[in-house]
Structure prediction request, 224 residues.
Amino acid sequence: MSAHPTPPQFQMPVQDDRGPVSGLAITALVLSLVPGVGLLGVIFGIAALLTMNNSSPARSGKGLAIAGIVVGFVTSALGVLICAGILLPALGKARESARELKSRSQLALMTQSLLAYAQDNRDHLPEIATGWEQRLSATGLSPGAFESPRKEADWTGPSYIYVPPATSVDRVPNPSQTVILYEDPRLSRSPMVPVAFLDGSVREIQEAELARLLERQGRTEPGR
Prediction:
C-alpha cells in the first residue's frame, strides 16, 4: 500500500455555449399572456425563431419563442370565442328589433290604406271574403307589405290577421280600442303583439290584452 495519498480527481468545468437569451423570445412569451394582444406574441415568436440562429453571438430561447407562438394562438382563439359570445346575442336582439320596427311600419301602411279605402266607400272597410289584400294592392301597396319580416321560410299562414268591424267606420264608438289588423302572435318571440287600431294608431300590446279586445269585438282568439 502506497504511503502517498491518491491525488484528488478534478473535473474540467463544462462550458455553457448557449449564449444570452433572445429578447424577442422573452417579449413573445410575455405578449402572448396579455389578453387582446396574443397575436403580437405569435409575431414576435416567429421573428425570434427566424433571427435566433443567425445572430452573432448565438442566442438561446427557442423554447420561449415556441411557447409564445402556441400561447399566443390559444389566447387569440379564446378572445375570439369570448367576443363572439358577447356580440352574437346583441346582434340577434338588434336584428329582431329591426324586424319588429319593419312589421309595425307595414301595419301602419296597411292601416292607412284601409282607412283611405273606407273614405272612398261610404265609411266601410273591405270585407274579408272580398279579398281585402287585393283591394289594398290596387291602392299601390306591394305584395311584400302583407308578409311579416319575422315570417319563417316554412310559415304557410297569413302574416297579418284582418278583423274589420261589423259596421261602418263612423259608427264604431271607440276607434282607439278597436282592432282591425294585427300580426300573428306565433311569429314573434316576444309576448308583445303589434296591433293596428281603427284610429290609425299602431301599438304593441300583450297577447292577453289583444285576446280581450277581440273577444269584446266578437272575434276569435288571436292567431287562431
Observations:
- Confidence is low (pLDDT under 50) at residues 12-17.
- The beta strands are 160-162, 179-183, 192-197, 202-206.
- The CA atoms of residues 61 and 85 lie 36 Å apart.
